Amino acid sequence: MHNEQKKSGKNPSRHFLLSAIVFALSVQGCAHQEQKPVNAPAQPVAKVEQHPANPAPAPVIEQYALDRLKQMSEKLTSTKAFTYRSNNFMEVQAAATGQFLTFFVDTEVALQRPNKLRANVFGDVPGFQFYFDGAKVSAFDPQKNVHSVSGPLATIDEMLEFVTTRAHINFPSADFMYSDPYAVMTKNLSHAIVVGPSMVNGVPCEHFAYMEPGLNWEIWIENGKRALPLRLAMTYKQVPNFPRFMIEYKDWNLNPKLKADLFVFKAPVNSKQIEFDISEPGKNQSQ
Question: 160 with 177: CB under 8 angstroms?
Fold first, then answer.
């Protein structure tokens, strides 16, 4: 969804892993990064001239929509660790026809602050495993038996900045994992409104909608003090046909017992190590 990626030349194993990483992590879901769905070719955004009689709508910010987002953020950051499962779908543009195809993916996530993360991805994408052990990121593709390992990284925030801005890995669920999700999710907001009461898989919740440049997103937050995210939806306004992404969260555990070795990647026998496709900060990579 966000950065353009560097082609990986003639190394098919390397290309496969990077494609799996980018696709798999892009279906884990959140909103602060203005990104394009994987495989959607870059398209010039037509400049829309505002007629004096039809000015752009003024920002609409409803305080309660911010208050509940902040409460959700504080709930997630107040826990030393959490786990959840998610079911998600995303639309990916087919290279041959341009049609957007729908893919369904399941994800299992375990996070331990300040510096541990584990994610397993499976479904309509090749199985994929992601580890952050407090010192480095490891990504493993079990089907091709290849893996990548980063350099030194100290915190989850630092790790997320690395994978999203330097390694060009789409990781939109990153917003929930930062040390201050509220600051990240409200950074570019122009609109925040209360849609109303709702239900997600039988759980009472509240539905909110937000807008920022290039992206509309909605979130369903569980009622009351639990204030956990139950559903997230995004629409990419700067991509032709406005593709959508949606994820539902379930089985939240805010007090899990996590073993230390859960976050440690041990390369299987004969697994080939390949490099992440890394760019210098602030530099774009061409496709």
Answer: yes
